[in-house]
Amino acid sequence: MSVASYIGAIDQGTTSTRFTVFDRSGRAVATAQKEHEQIYPQPGWVEHDAEEIWRRTQDVITEAMQQRGLRAGDIVAIGIANQRETTVAWNRKTGKPVANALVWQDMRVSDYVSELARDGGPDRFRAKTGLPLATYFSGLKIRWVLEHVPEIREQAEMGDVLFGNIDTFLLWNLTGGPNGGVHVTDVTNASRTQLMNLQTLSWDKELLKELGVPEAMLPKIRSSSETYGLATHSAVKGVPIAGILGDQQAALVGQSCFAPGEAKNTYGTGCFLLMNTGLRAVQSTCGLLTTVAYKLGEQPANYALEGSIAITGALVQWMRDNLGLIQTSSEIEDLARTVDDNGGVYFVPAFSGLYAPHWKHDARGVITGLTRYATKAHLARAVLEATAFQTREVLEAMEKDSGIALNVLRTDGGMVANDLLMQFQADILDRPVVRPLVTETTSLGASYAAGLAVGFFKDLDDLRSQWSAGHTWKPNMEKRKREELYRLWKKAVTRSMDWVD
Fold first, then answer.
1. For the chain, what is the radius of gyration of the CA atoms?
2. CA dist 321 → 324, 329, 469, 492 (Å)
3. What's the whole-model pTM score?
4. Are 379 and 369 contacting, i.e. CB atoms less than 8 angstroms apart?
5. How far apart are CA 416 and CA 150, in angstroms?
6. Local structure of 6: helix, strand or coil
7. How many CB atoms neighbour CB 320 within 10 A?
8. Count H helices, E strands: the chain?
9. Among 178, 182, 95, 84, CA closest to 139
10. Would you call 59 helix, strand, or coil by DSSP?
11. Would you put residue 256 in left (φ > 0), alpha (ψ -120 to 50) or beta?
């Protein structure tokens, strides 16, 4: 076996952690995945045990390396992609988290959102951060931890309690933890905290003061593609950790969307539509987020518009775990296929409020149009259709904001295996939907960032040449039917709003 002929990627997602080893052509040669616990202490609260995530990360690295009998010397570098906004605070000396991680879906900071919006409205920080005030982002979650875990504010001000999104927590542990762990994040993750200035790409002192977050606890902000440190974990000891991208930005890179106007939609726990806007940070007027797409080494940052939908794949899991209507997530397609349409049933999954393009944190989930005729199959169909309807809302907002027509939608993520959903998506958008040959684009994007940093991949053209279409769905629905379905969806959305007093 030739020396260092592979590249590794950690994809730490909302429900599971995966480690994948790719060869130079972008083909996965080994992969291992493990789920972790979802903790719901009370309605609207969602937590993870960060130590469990770190254990799972070590497990999947070891397992994937053993699958092919690989040694550390076979891996040229490792990239990290991570669930964004999920907030960890831990003790620098012990490495122990001071509380469970607050997941991006967690809504406990909604009172802070209302309080801050009273003085300047929901967009008061948008000019600097590209983000509206919402429960989604990390900054207010840090404030909550500082105010609710006894005695840690003082330690945070001294730099003894550290903050990071999951990328930072994993990097710190991978590079030694309490024994010299590197405390760093990249620009894409920093742009999701609501604490970084989009223009300067540095922590904004005014925002830190407004949100009550001490700078001493924050990681250094670096590019998405450079060597941050060397791994100390036995299976990959000495391998450079050389790429970090928030998972949605990683998928954008994995789909080779390097030109302005190129876009992808990732169908995972939530749905995330990102469009590359090049070197220009486009401020949204249609309910989208302005975010950093990537920054490759010394090159200037590229920006993106993003439409974030909180609940898509998570709704299928909810059908499985909370209602018991299916045994496995993949069964939903077969159940939905037993009926020809939704039977008039619409499901608006505003479990964490409505994200893009509405941003209504007081919305809650509703099922509308129920009659005695409706069956669990109609409900299954409504669950899948909710993902496609929400995607259309976001895509229309993106075309308005960018002034660019999206002629085709590149897709990836777990739900793209569902043919019924993908065909309905093409029908409701009235444009082709394309699934690439390699669907694990998040891991691929992390490997690309790391590979560029160490010269494993030459340049963006090298990466572009690896992308190829796996399957294309073409629209096949008459206009009148499409518009009537969408009209009723939008009506259902209004029924979910203003639920929480």
1. 22
2. 6, 9, 34, 24
3. 0.89
4. no
5. 44
6. strand
7. 17
8. 16, 23
9. 84
10. helix
11. left
- Identify the CA nearest to 493 among candidates 381, 336, 357: 357
Q: What is the pLDDT along the chain (501 residues), one digit of tens a residue?
A: 346 799 999 999 999 999 999 999 889 999 999 999 999 999 989 999 999 999 999 999 999 999 999 999 999 999 999 999 999 999 999 999 999 999 999 999 999 999 999 988 889 999 999 999 999 999 999 999 999 999 899 999 999 999 999 999 999 999 999 999 999 999 999 999 999 999 999 999 999 999 999 999 999 999 999 999 999 988 999 999 999 999 999 999 999 999 998 889 999 888 999 999 999 999 998 889 999 999 999 999 999 999 988 888 889 999 999 999 999 888 999 999 999 999 999 999 999 888 888 988 889 999 999 999 999 999 999 999 999 999 999 999 999 998 888 888 999 988 999 999 999 999 999 999 999 988 889 999 999 999 999 999 999 999 999 988 899 999 999 999 999 999 999 999 999 999 988
Distance CA 425, CA 214 (A): 44
Tokens standing for residue 175? 């590079």
| 3-class SS of residue 398 | helix
C-alpha span between 298 and 331 (Å, rounded): 47
Task: Please tell me what DSSP assigns to residue 267.
Answer: E
Contact 95, 200 (CB under 8 A): no
- Cα-flanking dihedrals φ and ψ of residue 462, to 5°? -60, -45
Are 272 and 313 within 8 A, CB to CB? no
Q: What are the beta bridge partners of residue 202? A: 197
Structure tokens at 239: 């391998």
